[in-house]
Write a structure and sequence with these properties.
- This protein folds into two domains: 106 residues, DNAb Helicase, Chain A (Orthogonal Bundle), CATH 1.10.860.10; 258 residues, Rossmann fold.
- The C terminus is likely disordered.
- Helix content is 49%, strand content 13%.
- The protein is an alpha/beta fold.
- The protein has a nine-stranded mixed sheet with strand order 3-2-4-5-1-6-7-8-9, sandwiched between helices.
Length: 447
């Protein structure tokens, strides 16, 4: 019992005091300390109160020194007549030099992270002992909490509007300094970018069409462009096609060698040179492919958490996915399963803070209409998909239904839902020999 009482959570009193002492000795190191540490990183309440006082003073551009800090603590009601004055003076005496503040910060942060890991381990142990969670749920909760610690944020909790506004200002400054045409990742199709403001963090983007319209081609277009120019890792989960098939389509897309030639292997010398150059370019990207056909959202989430500098997740396609509880028998529960999957995908996009592009099949409802352009009501198996998605895009080619149409390869990207702006239609050029899309005004020519 004595051992349990004496056992304390990891912390370093000396490092916490040295950080605060450095701040009081040299005001110039305050920005560095505030950027690296939060009040909850301090284990001792007295240290936490002093740090909170310093933070509030810094935010209002007030002078920070022992006298002003003590005065502010009195105003805030955290001043103790018996100890506060002596403690502040002691902090300055025991701190060797403010020059080593980075080392002190590192120690405080390390101990704080260890405490959060210990708290998470305790919470997971309690969940297991209560027996209310399945093994899959316990593992998902553990991974989610550890990932949140790695990302330096709380797994959940209330946040004051002031800190949210600071994040907004940081984002605005970042956008203002950037010369990018759109705030999110580019799709590689300027007209589509302009319509949806690019692929933004925490967005769930749904790309839906009837079979054969070019969903996978469009997704690979976007994946390739993001992988080449965004400087981020991009992940493609293919539940339908094999890795080799996908790689072949990417090579065709990049090299402008007809896909049919690649499939049959009938390449001339010039084609081999193009394929070699395209392969070298693809090797420079960080495109990651998984072709496991039995993946659930939880599996994808777990894999994506381990990817550094993740920028985009593409899933091909939604109706092939299994729920976390495994595949269900019979069609009567399929609507609920798809609803659960689409909700889980939106949660994944928010948690990973990346754009998630999910492909979806459409029902045959449009086939019976005279105007066969897809509508939101055509989304197959669940109305929940259109609620969860931030952006819903449909692909439509008149030439698919009407061979006599004037421009057989004219495609339409119909933006049916857009949380960031207006809905509308963008015209694109379909290049079937390379299975790729291009902007109308930038039709690709072979070099």
């Amino acid at each position: 019992m004595d051992e349990l009482i004496s056992r304390q959570m990891p912390h370093s009193v000396e490092a916490e005091q040295a950080v605060l002492g450095s701040v009081l000795i040299d005001e110039r190191c305050i920005p560095q300390v505030i950027e690296a540490l939060a009040p909850e990183d301090f284990y001792l309440r007295q240290n936490r109160e002093i740090f909170e006082t310093v933070c509030s003073m810094f935010n209002f551009s007030e002078t920070v020194d022992p006298v002003t800090v003590l005065d502010k603590m009195k105003q805030n009601g955290v001043y103790d007549e018996q100890t506060s004055y002596d403690y502040i003076r002691q902090l300055m005496v025991i701190t060797p030099t403010a020059a080593n503040v980075e080392d002190y910060i590192h120690i405080v942060k390390d101990k704080s992270l260890l405490r959060r890991v210990a708290e998470t381990a305790g919470a997971i142990t309690a969940m297991v002992q209560e027996g209310t969670a399945t093994a899959a749920e316990a593992m998902e909760a553990a991974e989610q909490r550890i990932y949140a610690i790695r990302q330096g944020r709380s797994a959940q909790g209330l946040e004051h509007i002031s800190s949210v506004i600071l994040s907004v200002y940081d984002r605005l400054n970042e956008l203002a300094a950037s010369d990018a045409a759109v705030p999110g990742l580019s799709t590689g199709l300027p007209d589509v970018d302009a319509a949806i403001s690019g692929l933004n963090k925490s967005d769930l983007i749904l790309l839906a069409a009837r079979p054969g319209m070019g969903k996978t081609s469009m997704a690979l277009n976007i994946l390739l462009n993001a992988g080449k120019f965004a400087g981020k890792s991009v992940v493609y989960f293919s539940l339908e096609m094999s890795r080799e098939q996908l790689a072949m389509r990417l090579i065709s897309n990049e090299s402008f060698v007809e896909l049919k030639k690649l499939i049959t292997g009938k390449l001339v010398e010039e084609d081999w040179a193009k394929v070699a150059a395209a392969s070298a370019a693809l090797n420079q990207t960080n495109i990651l492919i998984d072709d496991n056909p039995m993946l659930s959202v939880s599996d994808m989430n777990a894999k994506c958490r381990r990817v550094d500098n993740l920028g985009l997740v593409v899933i091909d396609y939604l109706q092939l996915m299994t729920s976390a509880g495994g595949s269900t028998r019979g069609g009567e529960n399929r609507q609920q399963v798809v609803s659960d999957i689409s909700r889980a995908l939106k949660i994944m996009a928010k948690e990973l803070n990346v754009a998630v592009l999910c492909l979806s099949q459409l029902s045959r409802a449009n086939e019976s209409r005279s105007d066969k352009r897809p509508m939101l009501s055509d989304l197959r198996e669940s109305g929940a998909i259109e609620q969860d998605a931030d952006i819903v895009m449909f692909l439509y080619r008149e030439g698919y239904y009407n061979p006599d149409t004037e421009d057989h390869n004219l495609a339409e990207c119909i933006i049916a839902k857009n949380r960031h702006g207006e809905t509308g239609t963008v015209e694109l050029q379909w290049l079937p020999e390379y299975t790729t899309f291009a902007s109308i005004d930038r039709r690709h020519t072979e070099y």
